[in-house]
Amino acid sequence: MSLFARAVHTTPLTAPDQARVPTRVRMVVGNWKMHGSLALCREMVPAMASIAQPDTALVLCPPAPYLGEVARLAANTDVQCCAQNVADAHSGALTGEWSAGMLADLGCRYAIVGHSERRRHYHETDHMIAAKAQACLEAGITPIVCVGESWVQHQTGQTEVVLQHQLGTLLALPDWRRLIIAYEPVWAIGTGVAAQPDTVEAAHRYIRGRFATRDPIAGNSMTVLYGGSVNAENAMQLFALPDVDGALVGSASLQSDALMQIYTAALRHGASAATPGAAHRARGDQATE
Ligand SMILES: O=C[C@H](O)COP(=O)(O)O
After folding, report:
1. How far is CA 227 from the centre of its chain?
2. Mutate which of 27, 32, 251, 262 to test ligand 1's pocket (most atoms within 8 Å of Cβ)?
3. What is the topology classification, in CATH, of domain 3-8+22-288?
């Protein structure tokens, strides 16, 4: 019996536990990484605002110096603002860092935590990533936590072991149900070739199953995104997968036409996973769910 199948037979939640479980949200998150400019902010936000719908989240993650401008331009639209990183502390003598509370102050609702590029280049560990996610949750920011295996791990059949370990650290957080997970196989990032749909679906199903061992309702209701060479051509196929709620998009998010096409694909598949109104809840009310 699979992990996921076993999970649905565990003890039912009490009513207070059920009230804390968020709802799956259809999302497209554009991570600009260290690219872009003030001009791109001023081009991209109005373009995205012209098509963004309240039931499907459209989230932009500019480099930190542009967060204020994107938050300002996105105010009173259905475009949301997200940081690419955040500190694990709320304040302190930490030159060069910024806190989740500061992001909330700007009007940001999300922060990416534990992207593989930060794990690799800045030596972020699962423990550090969990601490950052916790700091976000305490400040009312929804962390989008990246997990995923390397090419060698993929080739040697270790994907589930890697995910089990990465998710295990997150499960120690008291409010783990409020996390958004982005499955990003490292080997598919920036290559132009996304993971095959069966590979993506298997990983997402495993991720839901891992959470379902602790709470079967949460396993089915948490938002799980895919990232790794998502583009206008493959988005429809990825969004059609039953356990994929959306995408964390890198290079294609720097082109407004491509991002609009990806978002349009998400809108077309919106009814299959996301609940109407869920994006509104994700933007502001997950802390109380
Ligand atoms: O955060 C985004 C991911 O790393 C995917 O990047 P990519 O779409 O350029 O492969």
Report:
1. 9
2. 251
3. TIM Barrel (3.20.20)
